[in-house]
Amino acid sequence: MTTAAPEPKANMGQPVPRYEARLKVTGEARFGADFPLNNPAYAFLVTSAIAKGRIESIDLAAARAVPGVLEILTQDNTTELKPIKFSPGGGGASTSMQSLGPEIAHDGQIVAMVLADTYEAAREAAYKVRVRYAAAMPSATFGSAGTTEEDATKVSERHKEVPQAGDAEAALASAAVTIDAEYGTPTQHHNPLELFTTTCVWSDGQLTIYEPSQFVYGLKNSVAQKLGIEPDRVRVISPYVGGAFGARGQMTPRTALVALAAKKLNRPVKLVPTRDQGFTIATYRAETRHRIRLGAGRDGKLVGYSHEGWEITSRPDPYVVAGVNESAHLYGFGAVKTHVNIVHADRNTPGFMRSPPVVPYIFALETAMDELAVKLGMDPVELRRVNDTMTDPIKGKPYSSRSLMPCYDAAAQAFGWSRRDAQVGAMRAGDWLVGWGCATAVYPTHIGTATARVRLLPNGEVRVQTAAHEIGNGVYTVLAQMAAERLGVPLSSVHVEVGDSTLPPAPVAGGSNTTASTCSAVLKACDAIRAKLLRAASTANDGPLAGRSPAELRLTDGRAVAGDGSEEKLGDILKRLGAGAIEEYAEFLPPGIKPEAIQSLYAGRGALTGGPSGDKLMYALGAEFVEVRIHERTREIRVPRMVGAFAAGRIMNPRTTRSQYMGGMIWGVSSALHEATEIDETRARYVNDNFADYLVPVNADIDQLEVILIPEEDSDVNPAGVKGLGELANVGTAAAISNAVYHATGRRIRQLPIRVENLL
Ligand code: MOS
Fold this sequence. Notes:
- With 760 residues, the protein is α+β, with helices and mostly antiparallel strands.
- The strands form eight sheets. The chain has a seven-stranded mixed β-sheet. The protein has a five-stranded mixed β-sheet with strand order 7-15-14-13-8, sandwiched between helices. It has a five-stranded mixed β-sheet with strand order 16-17-27-28-31, with helices on both faces.
- The longest helix has 25 residues, at 514-538.
């Protein structure tokens, strides 16, 4: 009788260091602008000095006279570029405003691109391009004259169905305790460290694009469409991305311009835009406004929730995040009423930015929840407990798993929440007022169609190929872990290739879907190899494992092993198969997704599913606790302590996970206290478009930061059991901080960021 061999040492779930860490810290990792080129030309952008109006004339004489200038692209010599539709998500165009003129639709719109032998010559000439504008008065933001408002459901593909349940007006009217308040969040820019570079090289009619990208297949197909050529002629290479945060999931207008320039010059062209140009040639998180009404009984049980949101977008494009799609499922609300309005202004089109739907909407809701707790005289953790639910208040669907209260309990314990004096202003430390606050973090679990190719070589090496994107998410690392575990080889034997549109396609690296989607595809390819190996070993006429059933064999340490210890090396099994190597290509389709999705993915369209959309609600959740200290006289605000506990299904790698959660919470501090793009309201222009004036936290702003991983199993979300987590932890931080500020000072700040001047 034989028994099954022990499970191989699990590579998944181990805190292995980041696969590319050494390359990154030694500078060996090649980012988009780092690839060696043969005789490149350099591009420099000229961007609009007005936000609204027309170009009357462009005088290029002085620019052309700069030595080394090769060509200047303007509206007059770029007409072969095809306009393509605005298409948020799924790899389309980030904006419909793609022309260089004569209409000017936002400040900083690209109006010309200078090409020269050197970067310095291109820049000098760009400054000498004389553009005469006929300027009109632009509408900058909320409250500006000339903005227009519309119902998001009428114009947005993303927000067709409005979450509603019961009669919220009646429930709110008869509730024992109610909250009715307005909240706001500012414009923010992603500011990835790596600038919005593009390098294009043509060779034999084939275009190669080096550009930091969250969706190489999307970029490839959209650029081909823009240029009017077959997608097969375009290759996008993006092995490392120096920050993305949603700014690189779609095609921005610069890419096709660089491609066109390289074609005209018959020379590689490299564009490295400046930091301030990045504020207007790509996307940003738009400012939002909210009115929230909550109604509850004296016991804290919610009976009604109404959330009305307003979001700024550009004049032509109906971009909207519509976070009520998520917030409406968070608690057992009773009756729910939601509405989202788009407000069009003369701005560049906004886009996805780190946890896009939930960040502003959950800030508003979680601050309102704290206000309700105060009004009820109830502990804010207990208010969440009373309203915790395993069932969707909108459609009655169950959660696939939900560990909100285990997160609250673990984080509260670690934080020492029970020692909190609920009385406002009661806690002090010397000259500092101390405030403790908490809030919920939530992020929809997304999953997308993905493909992968895995190859096992006779020497036991494994190559994993999928066009996923290393945006800091650790995808190299987790894919290596997945393959190592499934094929029973050491992690060091696995080589992962991502970020190249000649590899099998993977979805956009957005919505925190990458690990779940691409691990599922790699798992499938590995299991096909595994099945072949075990069959070959067990059905052999001779050999150490002949006659065993595949079910009793395990793959471990580069061998197939039976329960009694007999074993055969993978290389020997490959020989038995007569194969030099085994290669498997796999296509992973999430449940409910039609097979046509594979063709769409190859065509650069990758829709994600999950969150509230399936038979079960799929969400990752967490709880965050913060301590703030506010100086009694100067009102300086510090955050000496934060604790976050998070549950996101199976954790592939606690080290990369912890790093994502820490980064998220730090970003939350940024949103709460530092970050805002200031807008000149008369010119509809970003004022602080540089790293000196755009405030983000530095090391000295972050003190103790504790992350707790709450174990959670969920077999419904996907075969890998993985919920996305990259975008979870910065949701809720800002509300926790604003709630703590209230606890310290009695000031309820409903508009982010919270600055010294708000507390004077
Ligand atoms: Mo994220 S905004 O989904 O890159």
